[in-house]
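re: that complex we talked abt at group meeting.

here r the seqs, copy pasted straight from the sheet so there may be weird spacing, ignore it
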Amino acid sequence: EVQLVESGGGLVKPGGSLRLSCAASGFTFSSYSMNWVRQAPGKGLEWVSSISSSSSYIYYADSVKGRFTISRDNAKNSLYLQMNSLRAEDTAVYYCARDLHDYGDYGLGYWGQGTLVTVSS
Amino acid sequence: DIQLTQSPSFLSASVGDRVTITCRASQGISSYLAWYQQKPGKAPKLLIYAASTLQSGVPSRFSGSGSGTEFTLTISSLQPEDFATYYCQQLNSYPPTFGQGTRLEIK
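got the structure back, here u go
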């Protein structure tokens, strides 16, 4: 069974940093592209970042480019999101999500339960 | 960036109704479109990918159609568990944008 478990969320002051982790199990982690998607309270879904299976291709939303860094450790079956220079508008539930297939772009087939990041003084 | 516009944003319907949600893309995206269902406090769930392919385990009352710039998600006979928010997402190019969502509520 595919499982994605996020951790690392919490309360942080504006300008601060936080590192989110996503522990994956139940599939060959090194074969799949992975993603972070966030959802501000009461708002819709916003794609944040994607990383290919071997980390060769990395993409960011303009809203986080230069402040967030996505990475993965295939030996540890883990995905990360380093978030720096946090702003109030980064407050959201952050989801880790796996591409449906290990080929092509068909959507996000598996999601974690999410971790809440609150940026407030 | 490709913009996705869902209509309606809010829909009130009854159990047994047939409902259709539309997602329009600001430029052609072939069939690179997915639909998700999200219930309050839960992660989204993939329903449809490649515009019309039903994800494994999703009931057959859900169907998707379209290509290019106009897509639809249809629920043939609403069940109580279908009342949720629905999102489309384009995967044609980065950033893989989402529509703003359609909230489906019980009439």
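couple things i noticed - The CA atoms of residues 15 and 97 of chain B lie 31 Å apart. The interface with chain A takes residues 32, 34, 36, 38, 43-46, 49-50, 53, 55, 87, 89, 91-92, 94-101 of chain B (CB under 8 Å).
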